Amino acid sequence: MKLYDAEWAPSPRRVRVYLAEKGIEVERVPVDLRRDEQLGDAYLTINPRGAVPALQLDDSEVPGGAVICESAAICRYFEAVQPEPSLFGRTPIEIARIESWTRRIESDGYAAAVYALRNAAPAFADRAVTGKWPAVPQIPELSARALIMWGAFTEAMDQRLATSEWIAGDVFSFADITGLITIDFAARAGLAMPDGAANLRRWHDAVSARPSATA
Amino acid sequence: MKLYDAEWAPSPRRVRVYLAEKGIEVERVPVDLRRDEQLGDAYLTINPRGAVPALQLDDSEVPGGAVICESAAICRYFEAVQPEPSLFGRTPIEIARIESWTRRIESDGYAAAVYALRNAAPAFADRAVTGKWPAVPQIPELSARALIMWGAFTEAMDQRLATSEWIAGDVFSFADITGLITIDFAARAGLAMPDGAANLRRWHDAVSARPSATA
């Protein structure tokens, strides 16, 4: 199988960190986002969504081969193939908590970072939504919305991490991976962790110190 | 356990349709969104997010009780408790396909419906994002973005359903539930299925004819 990957983008990084935590090695094919290779004809035959990451399976794994897109779907594929170490939870309540926090980080924090990045930088003019779309004009007002969302999101995460070692509870999980790539991606979009968010910073230091963080 | 529920909102409906497909009955507590009960002090002690649905477990299920929020997390809780009939897939590739399509529907179609509804209706002035937030002003330009996204989304779904009976493959799944509540919610926000989208309409008729659709 092959993992279509890109160096700095947050979604491919989510998969890389996940695979490193699982100890799974996969052949990687780099896609050059700076040259818009993800929107070129060759890549669009692999993933018509025009987004990375994408996992291309071999014919031996699925008749006719198959491409899985969406980073969370790729991680869930590997979780089903190799359950240990568990990153999506074992018991019903663990599974639910990891899913709930993962989605909260995505809808509140990650969305804010995308709003801030895609609606301001000239490089994303008419490409305000990730992937292959008709022209989608930027909306500068979304930068202001991103600031509101980011402030409330980081405050909520700081509160959560005041009483919990990891985001979803006592065990490192996919929610922490999602949090890490969100915080680091947001920093590139100008959204920082507040100075006073000591719990969030403690958690970010811990998750960044894991060997997987550099994957 | 208790499921905090609301009549017309799409996320609670996602859980109701899911539970009906699974044959699971849960005590429901109605939350009156027309009166903003979800933002009142009583409900905020249950779910500080100020959103429905929320599942409150009994002490016997989790020491100290627990509240699960986010509709997908609630459904995954029940899937872990009662795996059959499977709605999140059994094999790694089924699991990945269901997750991938579910997320695509959410990020492209559901997001467009939220943009259209929340940024136009006077009832949502300064409440352009679901749940308990600081004031979030509406951005009228998001209605135009919603139209672009909805057009591309429904076209892609129609193409997909030209060659697949259900959204994620040969078997009805959580992706179809997500598709149903998205299409019906979008219609309330003024985003319809295109007249020419025959495959999408065939699928919508089939999914709407299941007894679970009225749950």
Automatic annotation (TrEMBL), chains A, B:
Domain GST C-terminal residue range list: 91-215
MF terms in GO: transferase activity
Domain GST N-terminal: 1-86
Keywords, sorted A to Z: Transferase
Coiled coil regions, renumbered to chain: none
Listed InterPro entries: Glutathione-S-Trfase_C-like, Glutathione-S-Trfase_C_sf, Glutathione_S-Trfase, Glutathione_S-Trfase_N, GST_C, Gtt2-like_N, Thioredoxin-like_sf
Keyword Cell membrane in record: no
Protein's UniProt name: Glutathione S-transferase family protein
